[in-house]
């Protein structure tokens, strides 16, 4: 009997250790992959052009997985060494605070929470277990600690002044990159508008109103009701405008997009995704929605995964960018990879020159490539971040 008890205890301890040590990297490796297709190395012309760009990516979920982002990793899509290797000038790091079981693009309710188990496995502090706001604050602290320990290789951006000063320094030293914080889903407010100030104070500068489910503020394209703004959501739009917090419409329902575009007094973004005219599914924007976002002075970030672009190679991304340019105008199109967002991408961030090459093959001029790969986003943030 005692032997059986000891055996059960040992098995329990082994399972606990496996949960804490093995599960997070295994899940990360399984969900955040690079496709195995063989890709021709970028041309010399593409590599030379790529080295002269100032690249901006509007969306990556790399903070979620607990990797040391100061070390070049063997899994996932992005870390600081790979950002520098890929010549990325500015990366938006987004906080994911809740994700439902059975995740899909058609219909998800808000009654489950996979991030809770990831938080336990990564040993996040107890305050994060039942508070989405605390999860966002924890991930902001993770970013700030990474930047502080980077030896200047990762610069935290909060204001337009920060961005201008950083870009001046980067002209003399390309061996650095910068990060800005965003949030995927206003449910991170825990239903309380007063938490907006707490999140802003920790450095968050854009927030999407929804993620994969309807929340207290708005309907999601993959929610149950898929409605528009709630009364609380309309107040949130006003407060975000007042605080110069950028509204992100990625994952929003058509009704939410329509209402926000009519209501907002400031430019909005669609941080990551595609257009239905190029890749038809409910996650992507209609042409009318894309033009509405552009009319606010906003940006559309084109993603790198098959649901966004209907392909799994760099040329598919380039074609999606071409279509977005035709619909919304080249000054309103940017990059929104969704790296480390549980996607399969055709390359990691160290190999972004493959996208530059694909854009050249698609017939984009060097000036157009500079515009889409980063200059649009840099202009947008200079104009829309607080001073």
Describe this structure in words.
The protein is built from 14 helices and 11 strands. Mean pLDDT is 93; it is low at 8-19. Helix 12 (314-328) packs across helix 13 (353-361). Helix 8 (231-243) links the parallel strand 6 (204-208) and strand 7 (246-248). It is α/β, with parallel strands linked by helices and 387 residues long. The strands form 3 sheets. Strands 2, 3, 4, 5, 6 and 7 form a 6-stranded parallel beta sheet that branches. The chain has a 3-stranded parallel beta sheet with strand order 8-9-10. The protein has 2 domains: 1-31; 45-384, Metal-dependent hydrolases (TIM Barrel). It has helices at 2-31, 44-51, 80-85, 114-121, 132-148, 160-172, 195-201, 231-243, 254-263, 287-295, 306-309, 314-328, 353-361, 366-384; strands at residues 33-34, 55-60, 88-96, 154-156, 177-184, 204-208, 246-248, 269-273, 299-302, 333-335, 344-345.
Summarize the helices and strands and which ones pair or pack.
Layout: H1 2-31, E1 33-34, H2 44-51, E2 55-60, H3 80-85, E3 88-96, H4 114-121, H5 132-148, E4 154-156, H6 160-172, E5 177-184, H7 195-201, E6 204-208, H8 231-243, E7 246-248, H9 254-263, E8 269-273, H10 287-295, E9 299-302, H11 306-309, H12 314-328, E10 333-335, E11 344-345, H13 353-361, H14 366-384
Parallel strand pairs: 1-11, 2-3, 3-5, 4-5, 5-6, 6-7, 8-9, 9-10
Helix pairs in contact: 2-13, 6-14, 9-10, 12-13
